[in-house]
Amino acid sequence: MSDVKTVFGSLASFQKGGIQVIADDPKNYVFSNVFDVASKAKPYERVAVGKNFEYVIECLRTEGTSPWYTADHDEFALVMDGMVEVELQKLGPSQAAAGGKDGAILVKGDPGGPRMGRIVCHRGHMALLPKGNAYRFKSARPGVVIIQTVQGELTIQRWAEICETRSAPV
Amino acid sequence: MSSPFAVQASEPDNYYGYRSFKHGKFEFSRDEYFVKVRWPKGSHVMPADVFLRALQRDVAWNFFYGTVNFDHVFGTLNHYGTVDMFAGRFNDAYRKAGLDYNETHKSDELLATFKAILEDWTNKGYDPFAAPEETANPYGRKNGDNVKAITRQRVTAQRMVGCAGDTPVRTDQNGYPVNRHFADVPQDQPQMLPEKGFEDEVKAFNLFGYLSRSDVTWNPSVCSVVRESLYCPTSEEFILPVEHGNDRVEWFLQLSDEITWVVKDKETGAPRANVVMRAGDIAAMPADIRHQGYSAKRSMLLVWENNSGKIPELIASGKAPVTPVKF
Question: Looking at the domain assignment, is residue B323 inside a domain?
């Protein structure tokens, strides 16, 4: 039996690090914590915690059932805390995101196509959210998912609220 | 490792057994403990293990993004087709003293020399990719080789690990046992319940389990791709063998445990900040810094890159900021 202890975070238990500045501005590091962000977010707000030109990492508090989303590019969901079910379904006519559109959009109504299947994910599991299809999340208890995606109309940016602005020894 | 490019190598030294190498006006030699680099304006000595660990990453990453500082003096700067090899270029004291030196080479030609050095100077049982606790001693006179260890291919998934035709998940059976520091990481796979005909689109894998089975350290590997957005998670233990000076903003998301990043100015090497990242922390590394990580326990780190070839010029010309967000 190994005595090793790998430390993962969760909504219930996380400990942030920090920035000790020598000659810099803490804001340059855009430092936040996904559990901290999710603990203060409403269910399924897509809060950007990373941004690199048009690309973002969105942080979602998973709680209950999300709306149906779709995107014109692949996205990837990584469960950081909790158990999350991903439902996938084909879209009906005129439900798809416009060709080349960035980021996720809400599907109008329920998806009109056939069901594709489900994925039950626990912490550390990554699911493909395939381009041009509908997906939604279900989570019986609060959890955290991060999504690798492109900045879109649903992306929320609240950097001043979530990011570290102080220098402090850690 | 045979190469179509001519590598300038000496015969093995009569005592130490290692070859010496030349590329341009740079000369490289090693003895039992140290590597010596010479160039027209000076010379520099480094511990052999420090040099080999850095060289291994530079080779495996094909010179990576931006600057790979082997230490505070020697390194490479990638121009994606050509590469600069320098001494003292990103060291304020060397520059002020006029001792800095730079040569530009075709990437594949310099890579051939670096691969030849790595192969000749890596002894039997020593693995420059491994944590120090997991490999043999790098020192001593020439003693065999470890070609299998130094020629590992960097993982580059095209869509996502585990997708049809893409990089497979890691298992005991395909040669990736769970690392000793991750013995407590759950190995269950997500439950995939596809309807008939959608088996290739209803896909998921256990990323944390995948990382727990990595046999290398400090080697970001592409696991999922959204256009030019690359998730490059990696497992980290001991010290990042290079001071990485990026030519673009790079993001880190600490997936487990803790890493301390020592951040310095990219041009001068002057200290700027120490960033401690714990599980769930996410931070940007600005495009005008160099960074080196310290991980006491093996940890999981998600390195997130924007692979666009346009960015280095946008950053260098000042058309794009060195930080990703203003607030």
Answer: no
